[in-house]
């Protein structure tokens, strides 16, 4: 546009109204470019984030390089990082028109006709960057002539103005807005221990274990927000609550008596609560891993194991298989009438042991979520898993043989990934890492009929030149 401007001005210089139109065009172009070139409003686009760190190698300072401690370092750091938002959130935007239908929607263009509509997300001209402030202290130790290594870090990270999409009243004409939501804290420990149990002439065995425990907490929410439902599916909400970790799952639960037994109705079907209650959180208690490698001359066998303990996720696969009767749990009592285990029935002011079987005429009401909303509680599964993440067998050709070729080095490997997965009994069909909700926070909610994770075995040949 800049290159053609003089020519355009000469051509339309005799027409004042055209000159005015051209000026208006330049103003519009500058305004649009200004909005498109930044993801934050103009008054909030500039932000700085300083950092400082220091370390002290105490083994050098006091002459301890030999003996038990081969190397020892203490470290500490403080820093801030800034993060802006995704594009097109400052102002409301248009999107391709959509006529929604529960089982399939109509999208434009349709039959040669195109259409656009205002998106459901309202713009936010007050959006500001989120600023994270973190303090970390740690130590790096090497023991027994570097045969054992310990690396530990303790951290405390606070994010002010974390950017989330939050719902708004639909009476506004919109359903959501991206905004800065309160203060979030993450603090925890990261530990890595490595050691070499065996090291002889041609043979070496290395092992490394890691452990991570993070505690997440929402310290503050804006005054107008008592709790934020970020998103949900089929009556299960992914919620933010002040004083709680990010990622609480709320759903209708069963009604229990004071002893923790399910209360059933006159048909023997458990009664659901009238309010959604906290039924779990997506965050793990801890994550751990183990890697090991055995090397003999040019041959190396290595492997990686992963373990995640705790946390919950919602599974549409579980919901669907229970709904259509393909889940093994639907075979309970060979699909004959049964009495709900550990249940009671109201009796006056108290309860008595349940003796009413769920018969064939009510079995669909028992398994059908539409008639039994509390059943959705059973689709929230334990996220614990153990994986054989990777096993690699590789061979590096000796340099004496490689020297007779045009290459600097040659190696070949057989690589196996996702070779084995263990999950708790309640989750017998879903990889807890599978999701279609994205790779960000939404992905922690769960999965929506995700395909099974793939086990793969491949071959690699590397030629260095």
Mean pLDDT: 85
By DSSP (H or I, 4+ residues per run), the number of helices equals: 6
Strand order, sheet with most strands: 1-2-8-9-12-13-19-20-25-26-28
End-to-end Cα distance, whole Å, is 48 Å
Helix coverage percent of residues? 10-25%
Q: Low-confidence stretches at least 5 residues in length (pLDDT < 50)?
A: 1-37
Shape: globular
Global Rg: 30 Å
What class, by secondary structure content? Answer: mainly beta
Q: Largest sheet, if any?
A: 11 strands, antiparallel
Question: What can be said about this structure in brief?
Answer:
The protein is mainly β. The chain contains 6 helices and 28 strands.
What does this structure look like?
- It is a single chain.
- The chain has six helices and 28 strands.
- It is mainly beta and 465 residues long.
Tag the structure with descriptive keywords.
465 residues, eleven-stranded antiparallel β-sheet, 6 helices, 28 strands, disordered N terminus
Helices and strands, with pairings:
Elements: H1 5-12, H2 16-36, E1 51-57, H3 58-61, E2 69-83, E3 94-96, E4 98-99, E5 106-107, E6 116-118, E7 121-122, E8 130-143, E9 148-160, E10 163-167, E11 176-180, E12 183-199, E13 203-220, E14 227-233, E15 236-241, E16 248-254, E17 262-263, E18 272-281, E19 286-296, E20 299-309, E21 312-315, H4 316-324, E22 343-347, E23 350-353, H5 363-367, E24 380-382, E25 385-396, H6 399-402, E26 409-422, E27 446-447, E28 456-464
Parallel strand pairs: 7-11, 17-22, 21-27
Antiparallel strand pairs: 1-2, 2-8, 3-6, 4-5, 8-9, 9-12, 10-11, 12-13, 13-19, 14-15, 15-16, 16-18, 19-20, 20-25, 21-24, 22-23, 25-26, 26-28
């Amino acid at each position: 546009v800049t290159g053609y401007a003089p020519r355009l001005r000469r051509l339309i210089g005799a027409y004042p109204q055209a000159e005015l139109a051209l000026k208006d065009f330049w103003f519009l172009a500058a305004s649009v470019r200004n909005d498109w070139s930044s993801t934050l409003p103009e008054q909030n686009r500039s932000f700085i984030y300083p950092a400082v760190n220091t370390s002290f190698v105490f083994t050098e300072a006091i002459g301890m390089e030999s003996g038990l401690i081969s190397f020892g370092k203490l470290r500490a750091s403080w820093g801030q990082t800034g993060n802006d938002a995704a594009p097109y959130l400052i102002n409301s935007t248009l999107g391709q028109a959509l006529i929604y239908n529960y089982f399939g929607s109509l999208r434009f263009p349709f039959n040669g006709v195109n259409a656009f509509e205002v998106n459901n997300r309202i713009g936010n001209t007050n959006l500001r960057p989120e600023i994270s402030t973190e303090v970390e202290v740690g130590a790096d130790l090497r023991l027994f002539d570097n045969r054992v290594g310990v690396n530990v870090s303790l951290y405390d990270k606070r994010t002010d103005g974390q950017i989330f999409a939050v719902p708004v009243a639909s009476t506004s004409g919109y359903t959501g807005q991206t905004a800065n939501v309160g203060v979030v804290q993450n603090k925890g420990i990261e530990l890595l221990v490595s050691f070499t149990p065996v090291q002889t002439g041609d043979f070496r065995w290395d092992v490394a274990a890691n452990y991570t425990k993070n505690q997440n907490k929402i310290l503050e929410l804006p005054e107008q927000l008592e709790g934020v439902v970020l998103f949900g599916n089929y009556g299960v909400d992914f919620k933010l609550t002040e004083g709680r970790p990010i990622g609480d799952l709320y759903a209708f639960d069963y009604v229990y008596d004071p002893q923790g037994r399910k209360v059933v109705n006159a048909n023997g079907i458990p009664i659901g609560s009238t309010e959604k209650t906290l039924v779990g959180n997506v965050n793990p208690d801890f994550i751990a891993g183990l890697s090991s490698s055995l090397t003999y001359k040019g041959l190396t066998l290595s492997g990686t194991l992963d373990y995640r303990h705790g946390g919950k996720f919602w599974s549409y696969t579980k919901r669907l298989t229970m709904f259509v009767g393909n889940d093994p749990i639907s075979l309970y009592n060979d699909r004959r009438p049964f009495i709900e285990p550990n249940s009671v029935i109201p009796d006056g002011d108290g309860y008595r042991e349940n003796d009413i079987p769920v018969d064939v005429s009510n079995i669909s009401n028992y398994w059908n979520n539409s008639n039994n909303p509390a059943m959705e509680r059973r689709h929230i599964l334990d996220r614990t898993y153990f994986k054989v993440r990777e096993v690699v067998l590789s061979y590096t050709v000796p340099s004496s043989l490689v020297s007779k070729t045009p290459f600097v080095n040659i190696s070949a490997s057989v690589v196996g990934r996702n070779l084995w997965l263990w999950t708790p009994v309640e989750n017998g069909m879903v990889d807890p890492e599978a999701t279609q909700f994205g790779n960000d926070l939404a992905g922690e909610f769960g999965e929506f009929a995700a395909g099974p994770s793939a086990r793969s075995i491949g071959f690699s040949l590397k030629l260095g030149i």
